[in-house]
Amino acid sequence: MSGRRATIHDVAREACVSAATVSKILNGVQTVKRANVDRVQEAIRKLKYRADPVASELRQGQRRLIAAIVPELENSFFGALLQGIDEAAEAAGYKVIIGTSRESEDREIEVVQRMHDWRVAGAILVPVVSECGLGASKLSELGISSVLVDRVASSTIFDTVAADNYKASADVADYLAEQGHQQFLVHCATTTSQAIDNRARGFTDRLAERNGNASVDTLLHQPEADDQREQLRRYFDVKGCDAQPTAIFSLSQHSTLIALSELRRRALAIPEQVALVGFDDADWMQTTWPSITTVSQPVDEMARLAVKTLLTRLAKTADTIPVQHLEPCALCIRESTELDPTHNILRYAVEK
Fold this sequence. Notes:
Blueprint: H1 8-15, H2 19-26, H3 34-47, H4 53-60, E1 65-70, H5 76-91, E2 95-100, H6 105-117, E3 122-125, H7 134-142, E4 146-149, E5 159-163, H8 165-178, E6 183-188, H9 194-210, E7 215-220, H10 225-243, E8 247-250, H11 253-265, E9 275-279, H12 283-287, E10 293-296, H13 299-314, E11 324-327, E12 330-332, H14 347-351
Parallel strand pairs: 1-2, 1-3, 3-4, 4-5, 5-11, 6-7, 6-8, 8-9, 9-10
Antiparallel strand pairs: 10-12
Helix pairs in contact: 1-2, 1-3, 5-13, 6-7, 8-9
């Protein structure tokens, strides 16, 4: 067969029976003669036949394949999200096919089209930018039942699942303001998206409400890693010792790592001279010195809700109006903001 995948017809020829007989045996029909069952099972072993689930689902009119598309695979948040989606889908009898947009809307369109070619039943998309981006538009154009996750606000077309980035960042502002900080830097060295915008606005809006005299600098950029580090260095050089921020809020894991590296390069004591808060928890934030205070997103719950919401749509049991799921975050207090943190979860996340 020259490496070609064996088909049901190959098995039938090898066993000297009809394709219909092979199909009955594969589907567990008990009325087939024992001799035919034995020959078919031997042919399956010899040809190393495996059923084609896509073809089977198409024949039966049932598609149980879900697309999951994320901006990148190296980010631990997206990795955890994909794992949660895969586990929830498998528990419901679905399989997941994964694609990555690589932070490119042009590629996002290509991946969505490819998933459509695979005849997926539905899709879960973390868009490059927002619910108004090119990937979401392509999903709508192709009529693919979909749920948009993470970098989204409410949508008139799709159900959405996201962390409450705005409130989580407002809680960070409350926490740092109550520590007495007056000079802040909001820093992001990753692609600007709906989530990043919400985090920046949540922080700056709350500070404006609390203290109109607070000084807040915002440094959002999207260049290559070396340029990101250089921009942060120039920022500190221009500010000087007297005007430098006493607290930095970094809006992504990558941004937090760059900020931590720059503070160490300048030998600035953390948190005595500069407090550092990140967004989106990771193992390295817990094990580095000092350990990093950070916002932890409910990634497991977001994955579970995304699958549940999509399957509800596929079963046509959902209301026609798209729903928005906005999940609360928790702020984990560690050494980068407190010399001797006595607890790990900020009271705002528990009491409010």
